Amino acid sequence: MSDTEIKKEKKRWYKNLRKKYQLVIFNDETYEKKLSFRITRLNTFLIISFIILFFIGITIYIIAFTSVREYIPGYTDVNLQKKLYALQQKADSLERTFRQKDLYIQNIKNIIEGKNIIETPAENSVREINYDTISQNHSHEDSLLRDEIENKDKYNLYIYDKEDEFSHNLALSNIIFFTPIKGIITNGFNIKERHYGIDISAKKNEAVKATLGGIVIFSDWTIQTGYVIAIQHKNNVVSVYKHNSSLLKEEGEIVKAGDPISIIGESGEQSTGIHLHFELWYNGNPVNPIEYVSF
Questions:
Q1: Using one digit for the tens of pLDDT, what is the confidence trace for 25-63?
Q2: Is 199 in contact with 275 (CB distance < 8 Å)?
Q3: CA distances from 112 to 9, 163, 202, 227, 228 (A)
Q4: Staple partner for 195: which of 75, 115, 174, 190, CB 3.0–4.6 Å?
């Protein structure tokens, strides 16, 4: 094919692209002309190309600037690692808090049952250490000092919490207590004799009420004090009710001030008759209920 024929073929191809066509829309029944368009192959190609590029641009924008990209395999949120790290820190903090709360409640149960107090283990201490080669020689003065300090904090179960930074300073005198039972006080509060509450004599089958609202942390039978129920209140206040004939609430139940929680009785080896032994603890230390509750 000569150069002249090639040039003619190119011109013919370009003319075909520029050749105009008419697109007419008729009514199928009346054959009335409704719309008509004059188009060329070149215009059709440009329009289709523009539509394709437009949808490609919309797709790229959605993937790049919206959260839809997270549903595409291979893409992920750039802040996901930070969120996971923050959630892990919160989970660790909650775990430590739950361990402290469980230890606090367990120590209260141990006091009620007359068992030894569990000390708080050091979290950062090295566990795998051999202490067999260490010898401890204490002087007589050192032993006396240790006994004095240990006996001083023996019943201090209070675990400091950031949430209680201000509430732990709240005086008990500002709290209004509900009288657990009306009766005659037959035995008073005496720390020296390890009588950490008061004994109240009342009628048989009299209902014992909760002195404050809170959650029941202990509700069970003990050999020495019979049926015992203990309630954890706000501001690190715990109330304990011993020698009941039966218990009306179970562990984990939420009670309000004045709700019946047990029936007075004389259960347990230490009981000397129908009465209620009532204890009030504040920040892990026993206090005299008579100073705060009107009997």
A1: 888 888 787 788 788 888 888 889 999 999 999 988 887
A2: yes
A3: 107, 26, 22, 11, 8
A4: 190
Q: Which domain holds residue 16?
A: 3-67
Q: What CA–CA distance (Å, rounded) separates 240 from 281?
A: 8
Span 232-265, pLDDT tens digits: 998 889 999 999 999 999 999 999 999 999 999 9
Q: Is the pLDDT of residue 3 over 60?
A: yes
Q: Is residue 80 assigned to a domain?
A: no
Q: Write down the residue that tokens 């190309």 correspond to.
A: 49
Name the domain boundary from 67, 82, 109: 67
Domain count within the chain:
2
The rounded distance, in Å, linking the Cα atoms of 141 and 192 is 24
Structural domain includes residue 142: no
- CA angle, 270 then 274 then 278, to 5°: 70
